[in-house]
Design a protein that fits this description.
Blueprint lengths: L3 E6 L5 H12 L11 E6 L5 E2 L5 E2 L13 E3 L12
């Protein structure tokens, strides 16, 4: 059963894409009879990590958190990444 979900944040992540994953899996809707997930946003690379709109986000979770995840979600990036990053 799906219980543990992680979203991998990379620099330049599309704000809406990350927000949708956080809303679906990170919001407690148990009062409505829906499941509760152990949810975390994971830094996929060294920071600072910014959204496509320039909002800087931080998380205490690194890639090691993915080992326990039942589902790993990777939100879209807003545009191509430079080959050097």
């Amino acid at each position: 059963m799906l219980r543990n979900v992680a979203a991998v944040m990379l620099d330049g992540v599309a704000t809406f894409e990350l927000g949708v994953i956080c809303e679906v899996f990170g919001t407690d809707r148990s009062d409505d009879g829906l499941p509760v997930y152990d949810f975390a946003v994971v830094a996929g690379e060294d920071g600072p990590l910014r959204t496509s709109q320039g909002i800087t986000l931080s998380t205490p979770h690194g890639l090691g958190r993915l080992a326990t995840a039942d589902l790993i979600a990777i939100p879209a990036l807003d545009g191509p990444r430079d080959a050097s990053t």
